[in-house]
Amino acid sequence: MPAERRAGPPSCPAEGVLGRQPDELTLFGLEHQRHAVVLEEQITRRGHSPPDVEPDVKRVVIGALTAPSRPLELEDVLAGLRGNEQLTGSLYAKALAKKLPDDLREILAAMHGEERRHLDWTERTLARRAWETSGVHP
Predict the structure, then answer these.
(1) What's the CA gap between 78 and 81, in Å, rounded?
(2) Cα separation, 37 vs 30, whole angstroms
């Protein structure tokens, strides 16, 4: 999605409630994809094989075990995003606590900073609760 806002009505209720939220979430998704690519490159460059990317027990535990009984609301989605960002940030912090080559430490520290920015934005968005006063409900 381009950085400029497109003309016309919002494409989803959340966009009408929180303005640039879809742009932020798109950016976060792109940053997560870049993180995965860079980490895979670093693993391969150091003579290792990256792990297979298949659902496993951890993925099931992190994801939903059953479908939600009601449609998810914006607050539900943001709360889930917050949990994912907290987990990811703690994993980066754990990795950074280890002895690492300087170049890898620099890469991980930058990614950790991006994850903190994602978490900060998510927490600010949840705290504002703009959907309660906008009259638009996702």
Answers:
(1) 5
(2) 11
Using alpha carbons, select from 81, 75, 77, 78 the residue that is nearest to residue 131: 75
Record the pTM.
0.71
Burial 91-110 (b: 16+ CB within 10 A, else e): ebeebeeeeeeeebeebbee
State phi, psi for 7 to the nearest 5 degrees.
-75, 155
- Looking at domain 19-52+73-130, what is its CATH homologous superfamily? Ferritin, core subunit, four-helix bundle (1.20.1260.10)
Report pLDDT digits (tens) over 30-87: 999 999 999 999 999 999 998 876 655 555 545 555 666 777 788 888 898 899 999 9
